[in-house]
């Protein structure tokens, strides 16, 4: 895999989604913004919220409450926590339970998207997630009888199939040559992005995506479709829970 950077920060989480701890050097430090040379904190995007975690340095702990994309990858410390000086070697640690739950949830949404596209031909019009709970909106004009249970059953069948989830990066032209690579009603990949990250639930769903994912569908757990809502003009919202 190619290594991605954001400004001066090398992003470690996209190549190694299991990574939770690493060493880094502080490049910039302020009470509301810390920049490291290497980071495995996911900054959020594609509906997936940013990671939480800590930096450990010289016997001190700095809690990280969020991450944002700027000219660099910017870590947001908890207010009034001590901030490591520039040049300090720190040990970063992502909050494992939250990240793992978000990975399961994000993969669950891709699986849901793949099932609904395969079985009903519907594109996604929106989505959002928190750990183990999420929503996805579809352009679905009519809701067939038994839709909610049918979708839930189909999703869990794909989970039991334990399909491998692969991640790779392709040149833009090669990526967009893959049929149906964009599953949203609007192409959200900016034109300046020349290397496109692809998440492939092998045999079910292939999408351009920048988030973090589990390694196979069985690692998702179980999907419960909690509710189907009518959002008007033929748009339907599916709310799901990820269960053990």
Automatic annotation (TrEMBL):
Residues 1-244 form the Alanyl-transfer RNA synthetases family profile domain. The lineage of its organism: Bacteria, Bacillati, Actinomycetota, Actinomycetes, Streptosporangiales. It comes from the Bacteria. PROSITE patterns: AA_TRNA_LIGASE_II_ALA. Its cofactor is Zn(2+). InterPro entries: Ala-tRNA-synth_IIc_core (IPR018165), Ala-tRNA-synth_IIc_N (IPR018164), Alanyl-tRNA_Editing_Enzymes (IPR051335), Thr/Ala-tRNA-synth_IIc_edit (IPR018163), Transl_B-barrel_sf (IPR009000), tRNA_SAD (IPR012947). It is found in: Cytoplasm. Keywords: Metal-binding, Zinc. The keyword Kinase does not apply. Pfam families: tRNA-synt_2c (PF01411), tRNA_SAD (PF07973). This is Alanyl-tRNA editing protein.
């Amino acid at each position: 895999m190619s290594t991605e950077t954001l400004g001066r920060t090398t992003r470690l989480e996209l190549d190694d989604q299991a990574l939770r701890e690493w060493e880094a050097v502080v490049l910039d430090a302020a009470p509301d913004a810390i920049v490291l040379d290497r980071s495995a904190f996911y900054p959020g995007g594609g509906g997936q919220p940013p990671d939480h975690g800590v930096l450990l340095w010289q016997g001190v702990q700095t809690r990280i409450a969020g991450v944002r994309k700027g000219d660099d990858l910017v870590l947001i410390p908890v207010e009034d926590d001590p901030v490591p000086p520039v040049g300090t070697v720190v040990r970063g640690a992502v909050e494992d339970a939250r990240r793992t739950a978000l990975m399961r949830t994000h993969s669950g949404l891709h699986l849901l998207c793949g099932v609904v596209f395969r079985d009903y031909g519907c594109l996604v019009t929106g989505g959002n997630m928190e750990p183990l709970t999420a929503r996805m909106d579809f352009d679905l004009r009519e809701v067939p009888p038994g839709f909610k249970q049918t979708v839930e059953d189909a999703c869990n069948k794909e989970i039991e199939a334990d399909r491998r989830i692969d991640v790779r990066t392709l040149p833009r032209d090669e990526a967009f040559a893959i049929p149906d690579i964009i599953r949203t009603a609007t192409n959200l990949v900016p034109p300046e992005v020349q290397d496109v990250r692809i998440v492939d639930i092998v045999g079910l769903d292939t999408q351009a995506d920048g988030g973090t994912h589990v390694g196979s569908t069985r690692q998702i757990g179980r999907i419960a479709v909690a509710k189907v809502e009518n959002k008007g003009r033929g748009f339907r919202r599916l709310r799901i829970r990820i269960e053990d």
